[in-house]
Amino acid sequence: MAATRYRRFLKLCEEWPVDESKWGRDLGSYLRSRVAQGFREGENTKVAKPEDCDQGYESLVRVHTNYHKNKYPRLRDTNFTGLTMEECRIVIATENLKDTMEIKTSKWKNVWEMFKEKLPKRTQKLIP
C-alpha cells in the first residue's frame, strides 16, 4: 500500500504547478519537498499512520481541484481590497514583497530617528 500512496503523491506533485514568482514560498515547491521528506525510501517507505496519510492526500486533492471554490462560488472576482486575482499575484510576488519591506523599513527608521531625537539622552541609551 505504501507504493500506491507514493505513486499517488508523485502524480499530485506532477500536476501541481510551481509559481516561480514566489521563490521558497510556493505551495507546489513545499509539497514536493514534503513528499521527498515523507517518502525517503520511495515505494519502500513504511507509513506510520496510513489514515493520516490518506486524509492529507485527499485534502491536497480538494485544494488542487478547487473543490471548495466550485462548491461555494463567489459573487465577484475581487476581494476586500478590490484587487483582482491577477493583481494580488503581482503584489505578493517575492520580488515585490522585498521592495515593499525595504520601503517599510526605511520609513520606520525615519520615524524612529525623529522620535529618538526627542527622547532624553539617558533613555536613548536604554533603547536600541
Automatic annotation (TrEMBL):
GO biological process: mitochondrial respiratory chain complex III assembly
The organism's place on the tree of life at top rank: Eukaryota
One term under GO cellular component: mitochondrial nucleoid
Mitochondrion in keyword set: yes
Keyword Mitochondrion: yes
Compartments, record wording: Mitochondrion matrix, Mitochondrion nucleoid
UniProt keyword annotations, A-Z: Mitochondrion, Mitochondrion nucleoid, Transit peptide
PANTHER family (UniProt xref): UBIQUINOL-CYTOCHROME-C REDUCTASE COMPLEX ASSEMBLY FACTOR 2
Protein name: Mitochondrial nucleoid factor 1
